[in-house]
Every structure is written in structure tokens, then in C-alpha cells.
Amino acid sequence: MTTPSLASQPRIGPGFRLQWEPAQDCHVLLYPEGMVRLNGSAGEIMKRCDGQRSLAAIVAELEQLFATEGLAPQVQEFVAIAGRQHWLRWSAE
Question: What InterPro entries does the entry give (predicted)?
Fold first, then answer.
């Protein structure tokens, strides 16, 4: 799987569910065989992967949220890894 373009629209993969877990104080990704505990950055990325927003829009939101620039390479890398794990799927407009 290649690095997704900024035009791609990532969404949570089938069989996975993202939710906030108060007991763990983090976002988790649930699937039938278990759970993935996400760090803060991963949770912020994943909760924006709704299949409607482009990766470029997600990057822009994160850059605004964290008052920084240049996050695109790191976000694309995370989305690519999440895609290889089947946590995410995406389509290009």
C-alpha cells in the first residue's frame, strides 16, 4: 500500500470502531479480537477520518489545533501505517 495522497478521504476500516475510553483516558480502536490503545496524536488523526474530509483538510485542522505547520508528512505516514493495519481505508475524489 502506498502513501495516501492529500486528496484521499480516509475512513475507519470495516470491523473497527473508534471510541474514547474514559478508563484509559485515550481513544481506542476496537475490533472483534481486541483493542488498540492510541496515543494522543493518533487519536486526533483517527477521529477525523470519517470518509468525508480529505487528508489535506485533516492536516489543516491538526495544524490549526496544535498551532504548527508542516504536519502533512507525519500524518500521511501514520495514515499509510494505519492502512497497512487495515484500521483505515481511503478513496480519492
Answer: PQQD, PqqD_bac, PqqD_sf
